[in-house]
Design goal:
Length: 651
């Protein structure tokens, strides 16, 4: 395949300017119809068929309740939605009323209780999806104070065990370096910088006496460093093995700060819990030979037990271990699904968590450590959907070009014998993400409203399958993951019940790049594509993504300042082979996206329209990297179904 690379430097910018000008004044663009509805702008999108959005709405009326934290009195904080956005609610007892605590137009997706207090909690909030989070401390009566400084981005909040100190990381616009701050929650105006960081540093824990902070520096998924910060002197001391890259996840002090519990992939393919002696650097693995990777953990208040969330081929298992011996302890037997946010109660007797399955939207639960009893705390509604019509996916693997086996899930709707189903392939972002068998109103709507088989693969570079798999698409190997989708198209063609002539691809963020690449590399084998805030040119993406992300993305994708890598980017950027994208395409973009800026979608749409390719372009002016608001979800997802009906021949 011969590609026409884009020119570099000023010539590249000129080429984009030319394409935008062509799109603005060319004959194809002159016929593009534009209309607005609320905060959403539609360009080139035909009128919505009567009843379509109403048919899609129940899928997005389904609610979930996500466990966020325990309050000191034993009640739960959960995030759920009664209006247009997620807000924080309190549940006083199992299956009790959800009492709403926050009331904002912007979503509030998480919260942390202040330990040992009177019900105060901390929550972050941004505006329009811009991800410049401000943190607020709020009590149960609704009184609140702002913790963080205006004009900054704040994350990774951790409390001292007595609740008298909170640490977090802060960055300012355009700066790649986070700082570590510390404050007394009762007097947030006294916040102070205790460490001027380099890169993406974040606090993980504070010793009980407040003298030291456990700090991580994230360089890449497989390269995370751990340090102990002395609050009084500012000294930052590395801990653990040196001289090699290790992927750590999380961290908690043990033994009064003499040791650290964390997840580590050092010397193993998968991450597992380990204990690091701070003084000597010695490492003791609690699970020396893990068959699957640990994703997260929580330490019991007495420091004796660790609850580890393990990812087994996409499904979650909660494993309890004795911290001293590593011995496996009795744990809950959970339904097959995806578990999040496991955390011990303040008294250590229960573990709270959320569980979602392909056919249940997700609820908050607790497991009693002593009795082994499993208790449901919330029972969320399916928004009027018929549970009997919801489909469970099947896990399978298919061969790719280098004989590796690609894990994937497939939803198959009920069909007449001998019928050949249209296919929707959904590709995840990240790229270090993983498609999981959790509840997805979007996939269920494609199955039921389109009668389509829905496939979501975990191509090379996905998390969940070990560190070798994670690194198979790095830098110049980027297009190997695109070839994995080509192999999936081969697999589809061999299935007697799937129609290889009616295949659409859908993806968001990095998955949007994958969709664009598939549309260019395998355009004659698909019927259409949906790109949601995808990367269209690697050089402009790295130049324009927010400053606090840029170096982290260079570590994953490659550095556009290096001439050799720049040449690779010029070859593999979708804008370089846009002339091969001839099938209809829908593009969605949040106008406030700090990760993949709107310019990435603008330039792709301009290129395609300039050459006469049909493009439906949808922009939400009150969204960022994703679609958070229910009204926007219903509107955009209905357009997706409308587009898929057309390209799959279902109108």
């Amino acid at each position: 395949m011969t590609l026409r690379p884009l020119p570099a430097g000023p010539a590249l910018a000129a080429a984009f300017s030319l394409s935008l000008a062509l799109a603005a004044c060319g004959p194809a663009a002159a016929q593009v119809e534009r209309r607005e509805a609320g905060a959403i702008v539609y360009e080139g999108v035909p009128p919505m068929p009567a009843g379509l959005q109403a048919a899609i709405a129940p899928y997005y009326s389904a609610r979930a309740a996500v466990f966020r934290d325990w309050l000191p009195d034993g009640s739960m904080l959960v995030s759920t939605r009664f209006g247009d956005t997620n807000q924080i609610h309190r549940v006083a007892s199992p299956l009790g009323a959800r009492t709403q605590l926050t009331f904002f137009g912007e979503p509030i997706n998480t919260a942390r209780a202040v330990p040992g207090g009177d019900g105060r909690y901390l929550y972050p909030r941004d505006v329009g999806g811009a991800e410049y989070y401000q943190a607020f401390l709020r009590d149960l009566s609704g009184r609140e104070i702002q913790l963080t400084a205006p004009g900054t981005r704040n994350q990774a909040f951790v409390f001292r065990k007595d609740g008298r100190a909170v640490a977090w990381s802060q960055v300012t616009p355009g700066d790649p370096d986070y700082d570590i701050l510390l404050a007394d929650p009762a007097r947030p105006e006294g916040r102070r910088v205790i460490h001027e960081g380099r890169g993406a540093v974040a606090p993980l824990d504070i010793t009980a006496d407040g003298s030291r902070v456990l700090v991580s520096r994230y360089n890449a998924a497989n390269h995370v460093e751990l340090f102990v910060l002395d609050v009084a002197t500012g000294a930052l001391v590395p801990i653990g093995p040196t001289g090699r890259k290790i992927g750590y996840e999380g961290g908690a002090f043990l033994e009064g700060g003499r040791a650290v519990l964390t997840l580590s992939d050092d010397g193993a393919e998968f991450a597992r819990p380990v204990v690091i002696d701070v003084a000597s650097g010695r490492v003791r693995a609690l699970d020396p030979r893990p068959a699957w990777g640990a994703e997260a953990f929580d330490l019991s208040p007495d420091g004796r037990t660790v609850a580890v969330t393990v990812n087994e081929d996409g499904y979650s298992r909660l494993v309890l271990r004795d911290v001293t011996t590593g011995r496996t302890l009795p744990g809950p037997d959970l339904p097959k699904g995806v578990l999040t946010a496991a955390k011990f109660s303040p008294d250590g007797t229960r573990i709270g968590f959320s569980l979602s399955t392909p056919t249940r939207s997700g609820d908050a639960w607790s497991w009693d450590v002593g009795s082994g009893g499993l208790t449901r705390w919330t029972e969320s509604e399916l928004g009027g959907l018929d549970p009997a019509k919801l489909v469970e996916p099947t896990l399978f693997r298919y061969p790719t070009f280098d004989r590796r086996q690609i894990p994937a899930f497939i939803y198959r709707p009920a069909a007449e014998p001998g019928a050949k189903l249209p296919v929707v392939i959904q590709i995840h972002g990240g790229p270090e993400a993983q498609e999981l068998p959790s509840f997805s109103p979007r996939r269920q709507s494609w199955v039921n409203e389109l009668g389509a088989a829905v496939i979501f693969p975990n191509v090379r570079g996905s998390s969940g399958y070990g560190k070798t798999w994670l690194g198979l698409d790095n830098a110049e190997k980027r297009e190997d993951s695109v070839r994995d989708i080509g192999a999936l198209l081969d697999w589809v063609a061999k299935q007697p019940d799937l129609d290889a002539g009616r295949v659409a691809v859908v993806g968001q963020s990095y998955g949007g790049y994958m969709v664009l690449a598939v549309a260019g590399r395998y355009g004659q084998r698909i019927a259409g594509a949906i790109d949601l805030y995808g990367i269209s040119n690697w050089i402009t993406f790295l130049q324009n993504t927010e400053g606090y992300r840029r170096d982290l993305r260079r570590a994953e994708y490659g550095d556009e300042r290096d001439p050799k890598m720049r040449a690779v980017f010029e070859r593999i950027s979708p804008t370089a082979y846009a002339d091969r994208m001839t099938k209809p395409m829908m593009v969605f973009q949040g106008a406030n996206d700090p990760r993949v800026p709107k310019s990435e979608s603008d330039q792709m749409v301009a290129r395609l329209r300039a050459q006469g390719t049909e493009v439906w372009y949808v922009v939400a002016h009150d969204e960022g990297h994703g679609i958070q608001k229910k009204a926007n979800q219903e509107a955009v997802r209905a357009v997706e179904v409308q587009f898929l009906r057309k390209v799959l021949g279902l109108e």
